[in-house]
Design a protein that fits this description.
The complex is a heterodimer of chains A (300) and B (266).
Chain A (H helix, E strand, L loop, with lengths): L23 H39 L1 E6 L7 H13 L4 E6 L2 H12 L12 E7 L7 H10 L4 E4 L2 H43 L1 H9 L4 H37 L22 H22 L3
Antiparallel strand pairs in A: 1-3, 1-4, 2-3
Chain B lengths: L17 H12 L20 E8 L8 E8 L4 E6 L5 H8 L7 E6 L2 E2 L8 H5 L2 E4 L11 H11 L4 H14 L15 H13 L5 E5 L7 H16 L3 E5 L3 H7 L3 E5 L2 E4 L1
Parallel strand pairs in B: 3-8, 3-9, 6-7, 7-8
Antiparallel strand pairs in B: 1-2, 1-4, 4-5, 9-10
Helix pairs in contact in B: 1-7, 4-5, 4-6
The chains are: A alpha+beta (300), B alpha/beta (266).
Chain lengths: 300, 266
């Protein structure tokens, strides 16, 4: 006589996970992935902020030029600068040209020499600041031609040297950030691969029973793949949230420009953290599957 | 009637049910004759489902535990495998259920040389072999129900399709009231029956059991044997490793005997 199955309790029954769900080591793995994602998100924020800062600097530099005027014999510096400003103002692509008086020039030197420390007889360059039309800026050649035509001895600095510095620095930062991102991804993959090896070793009894019951290698690998992908997604989520919280704090505590005005963080930058959990899950899934398959295929 | 395994009309009785116990014992006293029972170097009348040719097996660099094994198991046959502890019974079974590879010789399962079998084909072959392990090898984190349903899940069957069948099979082996019990909470006999249910749920072509009566009393041994006889009657080729000589003698089934790593006629 057989006893009756407990069919009445089955309404909410679902097949149980084939891998044991409780494993203390998985908490450590989630913490490591969270830390890596936190660092990756901060790197992304720094990259976006530096890109924005570089863009601003580039825009400022490309929208202006500085002309240093050398007065001829019998001519004052102010007269030469005024003549140069007049000639430059007529050039197409120039929005405004303004000769700096001695007071304005001294103010430019104050950060280095100190206020009131500039002797009256100190020869100060005679400068003309030129604001260029941002849509169609005049180039250095056009400015030089106009000055030559006006008979002014002057040197045009169109800031291209600084532009190159900014662009090079921006490129270096981009490359470093990309390298850091790849390094973080590789570290996450290595950690997950190690955890997969440990998991397969710890669950060897389960894996053997699954195999002997007819499980494909890909099926068993899929169990570890899903387990670690979900774990990495969770860890990545926590890491991204922590990075967003920190960035938001830095944006809030420094007033309108944020805590790091030189590297201004925009609220929209925080969206860069959104794909982090998904990317962590993808990296973990690939690492876990490749590791598990390579181990399982080596078995008899 | 379940799709996965046809449950015999006779229940696998509850140990406390005296009437059922008598019925099971009577059924055992008159076991059905296996359709074929050739073994060893004997002739066979059908293509063997298991065929060993000159099999030797060693673990690492240790001496061979199996030597020059030649064996044919015909479809639907029923054999006992006997031998002293360490004679190589479990090793021979492991070769059949593809848990180990031989050091030498050829193994054909269902007419296919397992040495040349692509790894991707192994699972399909293993699904045709039900195994009752000596140490049960139940998954402690799964309920009794999920343990039995495991082979069906691995075959890709949907839960809705096998739920009723598995419940009925568990009821048949007397565990209908322990569907959601976890293996560590089960007694030795209950674990044994659970392991047997898992082995037969997929209605395998070959049913292998390693000391399936090692942890139960004589009465339970008879009931377990009765189950294997039923499975054999349903068409499974059965091979049971046992050192229970009383049970083997009572069964009146052909015996393969291992001595010093060699297969001899009992």
């Amino acid at each position: 006589m057989s006893d009756a199955p407990e069919m009445d309790t089955w309404s909410d029954w679902r097949p149980a996970p084939l891998l044991p769900t409780q494993d203390g080591r998985e908490g450590s793995l989630a913490f490591v992935v969270a830390t890596l994602c936190f660092l990756a998100c901060l790197t992304a924020f720094a990259l976006l902020a530096s890109g924005r800062a570089a863009g601003g600097w580039r825009q400022q530099l490309s929208a202006s030029a500085t002309v240093q005027v050398r007065p001829k014999a019998g001519e004052t510096g102010s007269e030469a600068a005024a003549q140069a400003a007049e000639a430059l103002a007529a050039v197409k692509g120039v929005a405004e040209a303004q000769a700096l008086d001695r007071g304005a020039a001294e103010r430019l030197l104050e950060p280095w020499l100190g206020k009131g420390n500039i002797p009256d007889d100190l020869p100060i360059p005679h400068l003309v600041t030129v604001e260029l039309n941002p849509k169609a800026p005049a180039d250095a050649a056009a400015l030089n031609a106009a000055l030559t035509a006006a008979g002014v001895d002057a040197t045009v600095d169109d800031h291209s040297r600084w532009m190159k510095d900014v662009e090079r620095s921006s490129g270096v930062v981009r490359t470093l950030a990309l390298g850091a991102g790849l390094l973080v991804a590789a570290a996450a993959a290595a950690v997950v691969a190690f955890a997969t090896k440990a998991g397969l070793a710890a669950r060897r009894d389960v894996v053997e029973v699954l195999h002997l019951s007819g499980a494909q290698d890909s099926f068993v690998a899929g169990l570890f793949q899903r387990r670690f992908a979900w774990l990495a997604a969770r860890g990545g989520g926590y890491g991204a949230l922590a990075a967003v919280a920190l960035a938001a704090l830095m944006r809030l505590i420094g007033g309108s420009d944020g805590f790091t005005p030189v590297l201004p963080i925009a609220w929209s930058d925080l969206l860069a953290a959104v794909p982090c959990p998904l990317m962590a899950a993808c990296v973990a899934a690939v690492a876990a599957r490749r590791t598990a398959m390579s181990i399982l295929r080596a078995e008899p | 009637m379940p799709n996965s395994v046809s449950i015999p009309d006779t229940d696998f009785a509850d140990p406390d049910d005296a009437d059922a116990s008598v019925a099971a014992a009577e059924a055992y006293d008159a076991p059905p004759k296996p359709r074929t029972s050739e073994s060893g170097d004997l002739a066979f009348v059908a293509e063997p489902v298991v065929r060993f040719e000159g099999i030797g097996m060693r673990y690492g660099r240790a001496p061979e535990v199996l030597r020059d094994i030649n064996l044919n198991l015909a479809p639907g046959s029923f054999h006992f495998l006997t031998g002293a502890s360490g004679a190589g019974k479990s090793s021979l079974l492991k070769l059949i259920y593809l848990a180990q590879r031989p050091s030498r010789g050829l193994i054909h399962l269902f007419g296919r040389d397992v040495a040349t079998l692509p790894r991707a084909d192994l699972p399909q072959m293993r699904r045709r072999i039900g195994v009752v392990f000596q140490e049960f090898r139940l998954l402690d984190h799964l309920s009794a129900f999920d343990n039995v349903a495991l082979p069906l899940r691995l075959s890709g069957e949907k839960a809705a399709a096998y739920r009723k069948d598995v419940a009925e099979l568990l009821a048949w082996v007397g565990l209908g009231h322990r569907l959601h019990a976890m293996p560590p909470t089960l007694s030795g006999g209950e674990k044994q029956r659970l392991a047997i249910a898992r082995a037969v749920v997929n209605r395998p072509d070959i049913l292998i059991a390693d000391e399936p009566t090692g942890n139960v009393d004589p009465e339970m041994s008879l009931r377990i044997l009765r189950l294997f006889v039923e499975m054999n009657r349903l068409g499974a080729t059965v091979l049971i490793a046992s050192h229970d000589q009383t049970l083997v003698r009572q069964s009146n089934m052909p015996v393969l005997h291992l001595a010093d790593g060699r297969l001899v006629r009992a």
